[in-house]
Amino acid sequence: MLIDTFGRRAVDLRVSLTDRCNLRCTYCMPEEGLQWLPKPQLLSDEEIVRLVRIAVTLLGVTEVRFTGGEPLLRPGLVGIVAACAALDPRPELSLTTNALGLARTAEALRAAGLDRVNVSLDTLDPAVFHTLTRRNRLPDVIAGLAAAEAAGLRPVKINTVLMRGVNDHEAADLLAWCLDRGYELRFIEQMPLDAQHGWDRDSMVSAEEILARLGERFALTPEPDGRRGAAPAERWYVDGRTGADGRPARVGVIASVTRPFCRACDRTRLTADGQVRNCLFATGETDLRTALREGADDEAVAALWRAAMWGKKAGAGIDSPDFAQPERPMSAIGG
User: What is the DSSP string of 306-331?
Assistant: First the structure.
């Protein structure tokens, strides 16, 4: 298993399939984009599947989420999902996406074995969407969400980052919109993972502010203690309403900055170029790609992975005076 010195066990694997993206969100990358990884440095489809197999069969991973960049830009995505769904034991498979290409791929992904999706959506206003993403693609996102729901990729979850003075006034409107469609909304505090290294704590909309804005329109009841487990989101029941699955409707807040959940973290991360990261904010990585390409067997690769996780720090240390933002931005690390 993947265990660290604090007794935490990593069972949730985040796999970045590409560092490329077809949006240019202001809190993630500059308008001109970034210098993408050269193709020879990227893991092949077969290498990705092999590493997922090692994680599932030798290291105890039970959940796999494909991320990016934008994972729908990966040409072999459907085949990767199908190969991972065929593993024994079968992991739970999910996808974090901006949904631009989801309307045309949702059915194929569901048929391949994908279980659910998380979609990034920060606004319902076309003008604000263009301001935030530098693209006029809001209708494509909304169409992708509807396609995911129709294909049975449930629960459809939406991830929203609020930006002060830009979209923070939309918090309650976004929740109402999601409740009407049976989507589960999760607000995420903006984290210091932008390529420009321009993150400013003072401009971040905190969890307390988010909850205060929602409380102006909705009655929120905290989910009972013990239900959260290792999930990053604190969750609240909303107005006694029922979601698409018949369970109480919920809204979540991921407060990575003001309410860190490091003590319960169960994640391990694999970048598109085959590097293991034991924390989203880690400043070091362990190279598995070279081991694969030099002929290491599965046990040797698993041993490298175990060693990488054993050295995981107690926490991300955002509040520490010597905190250093990772050199890689979120688009290269994987969400």
Answer: HHHHHT--SS--TTSTT----SS-HH
Q: How confident is the model at residue 297 (pLDDT cuts 50, 70, 90)?
A: very high
Q: Where would I find the beta strands (DSSP E) of 164-303?
A: 184-188, 220-222, 234-242, 248-254, 267-270, 275-277, 286-287
CA–CA separation, 71 vs 155, rounded Å?
A: 19
pTM above 0.85, yes or no: yes
> How much is the pLDDT for 146?
98
What CA–CA distance (Å, rounded) separates 18 from 36?
9
Alpha helices in 59-205 (DSSP H): 77-85, 102-112, 126-133, 138-151, 171-181
- Residue 196 is predicted with a pLDDT of 61
**Torsion sign, CA atoms 81, 86, 89, 92:** positive
Q: How confident is the model at residue 324 (pLDDT cuts 50, 70, 90)?
A: low
Q: CATH 3.20.20.70: does it fit domain 12-333?
A: yes
Contact partners, residue 326, CB within 8 Å, separation at least 6 = 193, 280, 281, 282, 283, 333
Report whether 267 contacts 278 (CB < 8 A). Answer: no
Taken in order 219, 224, 227, 229, the sign of the CA dihedral is: positive
Residue 317 in this model has a pLDDT that exceeds 90: no
pLDDT at 242 over 80: no
Residue 171 backbone phi and psi in degrees, to 5: -55, -55
- For the chain, the structural domain boundaries read 12-333
302/103 Cα distance (integer angstroms): 37
pLDDT interval class at 193 (50, 70, 90): low
Buried b or exposed e, range 185-207, using 16+ CB within 10 angstroms: bbbbbbbbbbbeeeeeeeebbbb
